[in-house]
Amino acid sequence: MTARLANEFWVASCYPGWRRFSAAAGQVAAAQAKLLSHYLRLNAATAFGLKYKFPELAAPEEYQARVPLSEYESYLPLIEEISNGRQGILTGEPVQMFELSSGSTSACKLIPYTRGLKSEFQRGLSPWIYNLYTHYPQVRSGPAYWSITPLVDGQRFTNGGLPVGFESDSAYLGSLGHWLVDHLMAVPDAVKHLSNINDFRYATLFYLLRQPQLRLLSVWNPTYLLLLLSSLPNWWDSLCKDIAAGACTLPGGKQDVIYPVTPRPELARRLKSISPTDYTSIWPHLTLISCWMDGPSAVYACQLSEQFPKAVFQGKGLLATEGFITFPLVGVEGGVLSVNSHFFEFIDQAGDVWLAHQLVRGRTYSVVITTGGGLYRYQLHDIVEVLGHWKQLPRLRFIGKADHISDWFGEKLEEDFVAAMLGKVFSKHQLIPDFSLLAPDDSPSGFHYVLFLDCEQPIEISSLAGDIDLALCTNFHYHYCRKLGQIQAVEVVPVIDGAQAYLQAKQSQGQKLGNIKPGILDKQPGLRKLLAD
User: 377, 401, 425: which is the final residue of a domain?
Assistant: First the structure.
């Protein structure tokens, strides 16, 4: 089957999801109330449902009054029971697996996934794909690249035998996932099993270069693509040789055909006549690039757009491991709320909680979700601004994470986690700092985190920096960003009178002295000049 026929089939399969979404967009309050009612009925007999008397709750206001707002730590004992094999704890549906995310007091969060939660992701994906592919029909004529997540440590299992992590990224695409990968994807999913990051990048480029008909590039963080493409000049001759031969010779010297390919000598000769940085000539039919374009990713998205001047760029919606929040519509500013995915609430700056149909243009809110995976009134700590409405749906722009979370590339470092890890490292090195602060630094050598340290004891800087980096790598997402090269190793910078210097630095950035909150993590770069120079 050709890529065009496969794409046409995929778009047609997404049409019912688009119709349901479009209908719900005109009756947001009713659609959300119906979804919440479904959760309450489905999970009434669970341990959680019995505790909060779900059968007695009939309206969103009653649910809000009975069930408290939650954090991941609220679920730790229940997650442990599920991981040991017990069911019926949070959800009436069986938990099929866990997906990893980063935590605050623990290195990793285990997010339970049910069949229902997977369907909720699909309810966001289907209308997005239908809208995108109908507005840009040329995308249907060729293959696409949907970024593949390399396995960090391989698949794991809990004590109760539940898998941790999707076996394949195509699982996010629903029941058609494996079929779509086989017929539409420019890079085979098997590439994710290459544990060496250089091998992973080389193989990814090998398959991408074999696709001159490539129509769409979809990545999360634009730095993923920038780093991937930066390797092309060094590997160009080798890649062209491999394409001609039909075999992928990995940087380590191993020849590995991950997915059967045929020799393409004519394509190799054409590529050899092109500069490895002339992406428009390499992929002349590339129509659209989808990536994060808001918050910290904006500057990198601009860099990417300069390298692909003929491609249309579309920002990603807001997606978390725990749930599907927004997705883009062509010609609509911001992301529209994925109203059929989950039950949503929003906390304003005064701490008041609002429903989806009550949001006001121009105001900012923190997102709260209830999902089919068994998270109830769960605070994501994602801050969004309401840009307006599409039909009755709020159009949201991602502003950033809450103040106590640093998240530039998806590393999701939370202050409690950083404090716990630094405490362990300081104890190992027998240090009692007068001042310590971890902050990002976007230096010419690469983006990394710096520990500013004011300490009377002698410091072995290299050893300390290495141990801090290893400790932070117990955070799944930080480890992933380090492996991809989006974040470089931790640096330790001694400072004098650190606490006073920090107060002066924040004042120089326009903060009032009374509003400066002391902490061990700052999410803004640029402190080196203010603290250490």
Answer: 401
Task: Please answer whether residues 98 and 164 qualify as being in contact, where contact means their C-beta atoms are separated by less than 8 angstroms.
Answer: yes
384, 436: one domain = no
Residues 520, 422 contacting (CB under 8 angstroms)? yes
Q: How far apart are CA 446 and CA 442, in angstroms?
A: 6
Residues 379 and 442 in one domain: no
Residue 185 DSSP one-character state: B
Report phi then psi at 405, rounded to 5: -130, 130
- The DSSP H or E segment spanning 156 is strand 156-157
Q: 521 pairs with which residues across the strands?
A: 438
Domain co-membership, 429 together with 527? yes
Long-range contact list for 70-77, CB < 8 A, 24+ apart? Answer: 70/375, 70/376, 70/377, 70/378, 70/379, 71/104, 71/378, 71/379, 72/103, 72/104, 72/109, 72/378, 73/104, 73/105, 75/374, 75/375, 76/106
Predicted model pTM: 0.81
Terminal Cα distance for the chain, rounded: 62
**Beta carbons of 144 and 218 less than 8 angstroms apart:** yes
Strand partners, 292: none
Domain boundary among 333, 367, 401: 401
Q: Report the distance separating Cα 436 and Cα 495, nearest Å.
A: 9
In tens, the pLDDT along 146-171 reads 887 776 555 688 888 898 876 554 55
Percent of the chain with pLDDT over 70: 90
Could you give the C-alpha distances from 286 to 143, 208, 316, 433, 448, in angstroms and in order? Answer: 10, 12, 18, 53, 32
